[in-house]
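Here is a typical protein record:
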Amino acid sequence: MNLKILLPFMVFAQKAGVKRIVALTPRGSFGLLPNRLDCTAALAPGILAYETGADGEVFVAVDAGVLVKAGADVLVSVRNAIAGTDLDTLHAAVKREFLALNDQEKTVRTVLAKMEGGFVRKFVELQRG
């Protein structure tokens, strides 16, 4: 398989001859082998593992995103990724950076929703007044 990991601003990794891929979804992990049918999957923040003949098993911490398998090509599009060899370090990075960012996004969305609600209320008051 040909694996390409895409970030919003660059190609993070591009590997040919990938023997297998293991990814994490909101419903658990799943694996891809070369003869698997084409598919798409939403990815959860976690560890993506792939294996090549040259590099062996490689681990990448990925943020939420999407995986698409079409023929021999597998595209992984995520918001952020960190490469590393130590699983403990990568797992800590997922918890520290990716999951914390999701909490910040929730807080920002809550504040924006309150601001939008206040704007709509004021606008309605101006219409009535």
